[in-house]
Amino acid sequence: IISQMEEGTQKPRPKFQFEKGDEIRVVDGPFTNFTGIVDEVVPEKGKVRVLVSIFGRSTPVELDFVQVNRV
Fold first, then answer.
1. What is the per-residue pLDDT for 2?
2. How much is the pLDDT for 16?
3. CA atoms within 13 Å, Cβ hemisphere of 35
4. 8 within a domain of the structure (yes/no)
């Protein structure tokens, strides 16, 4: 019974594969239509850190996997 309860509490994680250096486009959120380069992937959180150019400077932004697509 305990194992069934634990299974129910785990959220399914989206299966996306990003690697450092991949070029991506943001498709959701405040940075929609920005392009950037993957700096770090955190699969256990379902997050990716992307370097986007804001006002001419490279700025790290942490986004969910579902907010970005490969270019």
1. 67
2. 72
3. 5
4. no
Q: What CATH number is associated with residue 50?
A: 2.30.30.30
Look at the chain and report how many structural domains it folds into.
1
Burial-class residue 46 by CB neighbours within 10 Å (0-12, 13-18, 19+): middle
| Domain span including residue 23 | 13-70
Give me the residues of the chain with pLDDT under 50, please: none
DSSP calls for the chain: -HHHHHHHHSPPPP-----TT-EEEE-SSTTTT-EEEEEEEETTTTEEEEEEEETTEEEEEEEEGGGEEE-
What's this model's pTM, rounded to 2 decimal places?
Answer: 0.75
pLDDT at 9: 58
Q: Other C-beta atoms within 10 Å of 71: how many?
A: 10
